[in-house]
Design a protein that fits this description.
Elements lengths: L3 E8 L5 H11 L14 H6 L7 E8 L2 E9 L7 H8 L4 E7 L6 H12 L3 E7 L8 H10 L9 E2 L8 H11 L12 E10 L3 E10 L1 E3 L3 E4 L5 E3 L2 E5 L3 E4 L1 E3 L3 E5 L13 E4 L18 E7 L5 H14 L4 E7 L3 E8 L2 H13 L5 E3 L6 E5 L4 E4 L11 E15 L4 H9 L4 E9 L2 E9 H4 L3 H8 L5 E11 L2 E8 L2 E2 L5 E4 H18 L7 E7 L2 E8 L15 H16 L1 E4 L2 E4 H8 L3
Parallel strand pairs: 1-3, 1-4, 4-5, 5-6
Antiparallel strand pairs: 2-3, 7-8, 7-16, 8-15, 9-14, 10-11, 10-16, 12-13, 12-15, 17-19, 17-20, 18-19, 21-22, 21-23, 23-25, 23-26, 24-25, 27-28, 27-29, 27-30, 30-31, 32-33
Helix pairs in contact: 3-4, 12-14
Bound molecules: guanosine-5'-triphosphate.
Guanosine-5'-triphosphate (GTP) binds next to helix 1.
GO molecular function: GTP binding; GTPase activity; ribosome binding; translation elongation factor activity
InterPro entries: EF-4, EFG_III/V, EFG_V-like, EFTu-like_2, LepA_C_sf, LepA_CTD, LepA_IV, P-loop_NTPase
Protein name: Elongation factor 4
Length: 592
């Protein structure tokens, strides 16, 4: 066990985590020059964001002695702090990587706090020292001033050229403690991730704290009491490699023909069924979804398939929740919960790309607490469940404590942005000359739509955002219904602050007017709060005859046009007596 080191690399996005991981893989003999192996999912490469944490075990030789380094990759974005936290629990130490050209960013601070909460030994490392305009001294000062490390603790490397990486490996050996635990005690293993394998069932990623696990063992998940017989245990190299046994200190996986993804919960403790450990490992920070949206299959008969995909996704990503819902306009689908907007975007993309699902997602909203006149307090995450306003005493919305870090030049722009979002300014901190932290409280609803994109554009990409939920606060929230030919379209209803409802409704109707094709009758579009109409539009009738363009002559052209029209028809959704093309729904629902 004294030859094992379990650690993560934590960093802000693009500070070089994957590049450094590549250097470790090379040192461990898993050579992958030029390719970023840990970011293996196609999507991750596209987005340049590490979404899933997957470990890799490396044989690293130092001064003729062989060590086993278990490197657990962690995601770097604000939406994924739960995933960072759960993989940190499997480690004794963390490398905190800071880009010398960017300095300490909001996420660097957030990640450092997470690592400290998990009692990890942190090695601060400045990366990209090979870059010409790298500000090594400034970055070092920030690490000392903002994060509180000592200057002589900081290592300097280039993950790209490999400079300094040997020193880092030595520091890992010296500073990060080897795991401790009792291999003879009853099994106590922490579930920190999982994925689904069609043949093997759920592959459970574990960190063994005490005891051993091997093929044939009868194991039990302590949270739900479910028992299984272990089929295979092993460690991760580039692929999964079976081993005879995993014992205290190890990081690896087991399979046990677990068919139901929902049986395996991240943060759970695995023990032996007939010789259980007394206490489970203290719980992971429970992640509560904060952003909700409906997801519906485009073809109603793909509901079951979508359900299966969602179950698999949930297994890889427990921060994501789902439950069935039905909509008059969109049919049967699911109400899904996400930790943030980026998490939602990525999940939807994964459903489309990885799982090949044709889906439609409704406008995201937060969860509201509603105090009813009869004294009950309910929480709702779906406009469809909004109670009759006459029964409502008070509505409360989630508030977050947010901080934006920027160079001072952008203070004006950022103040303007947050003021337009119902934010309450708190304070401005100057951790050093070139950086300002603006702290404010803001309703979560205000930052889940286009806030991050706007922030990036008004700060030329420099601004970083971090936020934390602090509680619910009373607010004037209304439900807005959208009606087509007087018929409310449930999938288009939304909840908003009274002051913003009119504006959002207007832009939604305008967009609808542009994207819904004229039909043979007039279409009226209305937005209403209760029975009060707050905005309206109309689409004048029009007879669409594609063949009129053909002047009778060319038959093949005619046929092509007809076929094209038929294709178009297939992608229509009927809403009452109005045909709405799929495209239109997409753009209506993407209204910010
Ligand atoms: P996420 O997975 O999105 O969090 O990013 P990451 O932290 O894994 O960053 P990644 O390793 O993808 O590096 C981001 C960019 O910085 C890439 O273009 C790298 O080639 C580059 N980079 C990383 N380390 C160095 C370095 O030491 N020197 C130089 N010059 N470039 C580097």
């Amino acid at each position: 066990m004294d030859k094992i080191r379990n650690f993560s690399i934590i960093a802000h996005i693009d500070h070089g985590k994957s590049t450094l991981a590549d250097r470790f893989l090379e040192r461990g003999g898993l050579v992958v020059k030029g390719e970023q192996i840990l970011d293996s999912m196609e999507l991750e490469r596209d987005r340049g964001i590490t979404i899933r944490a997957h470990p890799v075990s490396l044989d690293i030789e130092v001064d003729g002695v062989k060590y086993l380094f278990n490197l657990i990759d962690t995601p770097g974005h604000v939406d994924f702090s739960y995933e960072v936290s759960r993989s940190l629990k499997a480690c004794e130490g963390a490398i905190l990587l800071v880009d010398a050209t960017q300095g300490v960013e909001a996420q660097t601070i957030a990640n450092t706090y997470l690592a400290l909460e998990n009692d990890l030994v942190i090695i601060p490392v400045i990366n990209k020292i090979d870059v010409k305009d790298a500000d090594i001294e400034g970055t070092s000062k920030e690490i000392v001033d903002i994060l509180g490390f000592k200057e002589d603790e900081i290592l300097k490397i280039s993950a790209k050229t490999g400079e300094g990486v040997d020193n880092l490996i030595k520091a890992i050996l010296e500073r990060i403690p080897a795991p401790h635990g009792d291999p003879n005690a009853p099994l106590k293993a922490l579930v920190f991730d999982s994925h689904f394998d069609t043949y093997k069932g759920v592959v459970v990623y574990v960190r063994i704290k005490d005891g051993t696990i091997k093929k044939g063992d009868k194991i039990k998940f302590m949270s739900n009491g479910k028992e299984f017989e272990v089929e295979e245990v092993g460690i991760f190299r580039l692929k999964m490699e079976p081993e005879d046994v995993l014992s205290a200190g190890s990081v690896g996986y087991f399979t046990a023909l677990i068919r139901d993804p929902l049986d395996v919960q991240i943060g759970d403790t695995v023990t032996h069924a007939n010789n259980p450990t007394k206490e489970p490992i203290p719980g992971f920070r429970k992640n509560v979804p904060m952003v909700f949206a409906g997801i519906f299959p485009l073809n109603t008969n793909e509901f079951e398939e979508l359900k299966k995909s969602l179950e698999k996704l949930h297994l890889n990503d427990p921060a994501f929740t789902f439950e069935p819902e039905s909509s008059e306009a969109l049919g049967f689908g699911f109400r899904c919960g996400f930790s943030g907007l980026l998490h939602m975007e990525i999940t939807i993309e994964r459903l489309r790309i990885e799982f090949g699902q044709d889906i439609i997602a409704t406008v995201p909203n937060v969860e509201y607490e509603i105090v009813l006149r009869d004294g009950r307090t309910i929480t709702i995450d779906n406009p469809a469940k909004f109670p009759d306003p006459s029964n409502i005493l008070e509505i409360r919305e989630p508030i977050v404590d947010a901080s934006i870090m920027i160079p001072p030049d952008y203070i004006g722009n950022v103040m303007e942005l947050i003021t337009s979002r119902r934010a309450v300014y708190k304070e401005m901190l100057y951790p050093e000359e070139k950086r300002v932290i603006i702290r404010f409280e803001v309703p979560l609803q205000e930052i889940i739509t286009d806030f991050f994109d706007t922030l990036k554009s008004v700060t030329r990409g420099y601004g970083t955002l971090d936020y934390e939920f602090i509680g619910f606060k009373k607010a004037d929230i209304v439900k807005v219904d959208i009606l087509i030919n007087k018929k409310p379209i449930d999938a288009l209803s939304f909840m908003a602050h009274e002051e913003k409802a009119y504006y959002v409704a207007r832009s939604m109707l305008e967009k609808m007017r542009k994207v819904i094709p004229r039909q043979m009758f007039e279409i009226s579009l209305q937005a209403a709060i209760g029975s009060k109409i707050i905005a309206k539009e109309r689409i004048v009738p029009y007879r669409k005859d594609v063949l009129a363009k053909c002047y009778g002559g060319d038959v093949t052209r005619k046929r092509k046009l007809l076929e094209k029209q038929k294709e178009g028809k297939k992608k229509m959704k009927m809403v009452g007596n109005v045909e709405i093309p799929q495209e239109a729904f997409f753009s209506i629902l993407s209204v910010k």
